[in-house]
Amino acid sequence: MNDRNTSKEEIRKAISAAEKVLIGIGGEWKLLEDGRDVRSRSLKDEAQRAVREAYECLSRLVEDKDYYIVTTLTDGAIYDADFDPARIVAPCGNIHWRQCSRACTKDIWEEGEVPSDVCPHCGAPLTGNTLEAETYIEEGYLPGGKIISNGRPKRLTGSW
After folding, report:
1. Is residue 43 within 8 Å of residue 80, measured between CB atoms?
2. Smallest Cα–Cα separation from 75: which of 118, 26, 146, 22?
3. pTM of the prediction?
4. CB within 8 A of 95, min separation 6: which ones?
């Protein structure tokens, strides 16, 4: 058996024996370049087969475990995988979540929820709710910060 297979087997055994599993997802899991804007890419795309298969394998490994996932990725792919969205935190944001570019409100919307992509409060353009936003609204990822519906984040409301 080569070192890679040995490592895989060690990981499987460790996860199998664990009561709780904390998973960190970073850049090696990001959606692959395919010539389109990242907001147009999805795990369903054929170009993303390797990433999709990796997420599927990880999901099978932890399906019967008490797990929690922390992702630094902002591509939103983790929410298209077969994980419980309530067990995922994305502290760097998500390109599919939209926020006011002026941060006039802490409201965050799911992509397409505000069809004009203009803040309904002040009229400024909406931007991705990610660390790359000049006015990143961090509260979007905090516990209680988002309402999950059909496995997708929904509009955030309330005072912070």
Report:
1. yes
2. 26
3. 0.79
4. 38, 39, 74, 75, 76, 111, 128, 129, 130
